[in-house]
Design brief:
Growth Hormone, Chain: A; 456 residues; single chain; mainly alpha; 0% strand
C-alpha cells in the first residue's frame, strides 16, 4: 500500500518537535491510568479461580457478575462525559479514579452472589466516562493523521495490563491466611489502591488543553493550538458539533452497534482466559498467571506494529476488519483444538488476542475522526456506553454455554461468530467513508492542500 505519511502528515520541524513533547508528557500518564483501569475491571477473572468456591458462584453467576459491571458503566457513561466536558478532563478523571478505586478495593467484601453483583455494578458506575474522556482528551492534543498511532499506544495498556497483571494476580491468590484474608481478597485490595493514589495525583500532572500547556515553548504552544483549531474548523464546516448533535448522529449509533460486537470479543476472552487456561492442565494459580501472560505479551507487540501501519496507510476500516477476522479465526481454532492439543489451542488464543487488541485503535480512530468538539465528547461516550453492553452479554453468554455444555468450546465459538460478523459489517460500512479511509477525510485533504501550496 502507498504510504500517506509524506502527503498528509508532513508537520515540519516545529510540528514534529511539538508532538514529540506532547507524546512524552501526555501518553505515559494516560497509559498508566488505563493500565490500572483495565487491571481493576478484569482481575475478577483471576479472583474467580478461588473466589467462586469460597462464596458459591457457578459459571453463569460469575459471568453475570463479571458482565454486570458494564450495566452500571453504560447507564452513567453519557452523563459522566457531559461532566468531563463541563469541568475539564483533569478534575473529572480524578473524580472517576478515586471513586472506582474505592469500589475496586471494596470487592474484597463480597460474600455471595448478591454482594458480588452489587459491588461489580457500582464499580462500573464509578468508572463510567473514563474511556471516552480519555479518547476525547486525545482529540484535543493530536491531529487526526497521528491519532491511530497514539490510540495504539493507549490501547497497549490493555494487553500489557493483562500480561503484567496476570502473573501478579496469580501470585496474589497465594496470600491465603495473611491477616485472616483469602488470596482473592488481597488481590482486590492491592490492585484497587493504586487508582485512589493516581486520582490524587492526576490534577497535578494533567493539562486540560494545549493553550494551557506551560511545559511547551510559546511557538510550540501556538502551533499546536492553531493546528487543532484549524482541524476543528474544517470538520465543523460539514455539520453540527454540539453535545446533543453527537448523540443524534447516525454514525454514532452505527459505530455503537459495531463496537458492541468487538467488545463481545474483548471481554468474552479477557474475563474467561484464566478459566480456559486452567482447564488445559493441572496448574497452580501462579502458573496460570504466567501462561495467560504469553498471548497478551505477543498481542502488545502486534498492537504497536498494526496501529502504526494503520496510520501510515490511512486504511482504518481495512485494518479493523482484518484484525477482527484474525481474532475470530483464532477463537474458532482454539475452540476445536482445546479437547485435542492444549499447545495448538494456546496458539489460537494468542492469535485471537492479537486480533482483538489490534482492532481497537483503528476502530476507535474512526468515530474520533468523524466527530469533533462537544459532539465528539457525547458521541464517543454513547459509542462506548452502548458498545460496552457487549461486555455484559459476552461473559454471561459464555458462562451459560459453559454450564450447559460442561466445556469452554461452545463459548469460544460464540465469540468467534460475533467477531467475524462484526468484521464484515465494519468493512462494508466504513471502507468508503472519510473516517474509514484517511484519503477521503476532508481535514486531511485540506492539510495536504496547504502542504502542497507551500512547495515552491
Amino acid at each position: 500500500m502507498t504510504s500517506l505519511t509524506p502527503q498528509f502528515s508532513d508537520l515540519g520541524e516545529l510540528g514534529d518537535r511539538t508532538l514529540r513533547k506532547v507524546r512524552r508528557r501526555v501518553m505515559p500518564l494516560i497509559v498508566l491510568l488505563y493500565f490500572v483501569a483495565y487491571l481493576d475491571r478484569n482481575n475478577v477473572g483471576f479472583a474467580k479461580l478461588t473466589m467462586s468456591e469460597d462464596i458459591g458462584l457457578n459459571a453463569a453467576a460469575y459471568g453475570l457478575g463479571a458482565g454486570i459491571f458494564f450495566l452500571g458503566y453504560a447507564l452513567l457513561e453519557v452523563p459522566s462525559n457531559a461532566g468531563m466536558y463541563k469541568f475539564g478532563a483533569r478534575k473529572w478523571l480524578a473524580r472517576i479514579l478515586i471513586t472506582w478505586g474505592i469500589f475496586a478495593t471494596a470487592m474484597c467484601l463480597v460474600n455471595g452472589e448478591t454482594t458480588y453483583y452489587i459491588i461489580r455494578f457500582l464499580l462500573g458506575a464509578a468508572e463510567a466516562g473514563f474511556f471516552p474522556a480519555i479518547l476525547f482528551y486525545l482529540t484535543l492534543w493530536f491531529p487526526a493523521a497521528q491519532r491511530v498511532t497514539v490510540l495504539g499506544i493507549f490501547i497497549l495498556a490493555q494487553p500489557v495490563s493483562n500480561a503484567l497483571g496476570a502473573p501478579v494476580s496469580g501470585l496474589l491468590l497465594q496470600m491465603d491466611g495473611i491477616m485472616g484474608l483469602q488470596g482473592w481478597q488481597w488481590l482486590y485490595i492491592i490492585e484497587g489502591i493504586p487508582a485512589i493514589l493516581l486520582g490524587l495525583l492526576t490534577p497535578l500532572l494533567m493539562t486540560d488543553r494545549p493553550r494551557d500547556a506551560k511545559w511547551l515553548s510559546p511557538d510550540e504552544r501556538e502551533w499546536l493550538a492553531s493546528t487543532m483549531d484549524k482541524e476543528l474548523a474544517v470538520k465543523s464546516s460539514t455539520g453540527k458539533h454540539n453535545f446533543l448533535a453527537g448523540l443524534k448522529d447516525k454514525r454514532t449509533l452505527t459505530y455503537s452497534a459495531l463496537y458492541f460486537g468487538l467488545v463481545c470479543g474483548i471481554y468474552g476472552l479477557g474475563l474467561w482466559m484464566p478459566t480456559i487456561v486452567s482447564a488445559m492442565g493441572k496448574f497452580s494459580t501462579a502458573q496460570v498467571g504466567f501462561i495467560v501472560a504469553i498471548p497478551y505479551t505477543i498481542a502488545a507487540v502486534f498492537v504497536y506494529f498494526w496501529s502504526k501501519r494503520a496510520d501510515r496507510t490511512g486504511k482504518r476500516a481495512w485494518h479493523t476488519a482484518v484484525s477482527m477476522v484474525l481474532a475470530g479465526m483464532g477463537l474458532l481454532a482454539a475452540g476445536y483444538l482445546l479437547p485435542v492439543n492444549p499447545v495448538l489451542a494456546m496458539i489460537g488464543l494468542t492469535a485471537s488476542a492479537m486480533g482483538i487488541y489490534g482492532a481497537i485503535a483503528p476502530f476507535l480512530s474512526m468515530p474520533s475522526a468523524a466527530l469533533t468538539g462537544a459532539a465528539a465528547a457525547a458521541g464517543l461516550a454513547l459509542i462506548n456506553s452502548l458498545g460496552n453492553l457487549g461486555g455484559f452479554v459476552a461473559p454471561y453468554a459464555v458462562g451459560l454455554l459453559n454450564d450447559a455444555t460442561g466445556n469452554n468450546q461452545s463459548g469460544l465459538l460464540f465469540l468467534s461468530a460475533c467477531l467475524c460478523i462484526t468484521a464484515v459489517a465494519t468493512y462494508l460500512y466504513a471502507r468508503k467513508r472519510p473516517e474509514g479511509d484517511a484519503a477521503l477525510d476532508p481535514a486531511v485533504a485540506a492539510a495536504a492542500a496547504v502542504d502542497t501550496a507551500k512547495i515552491p
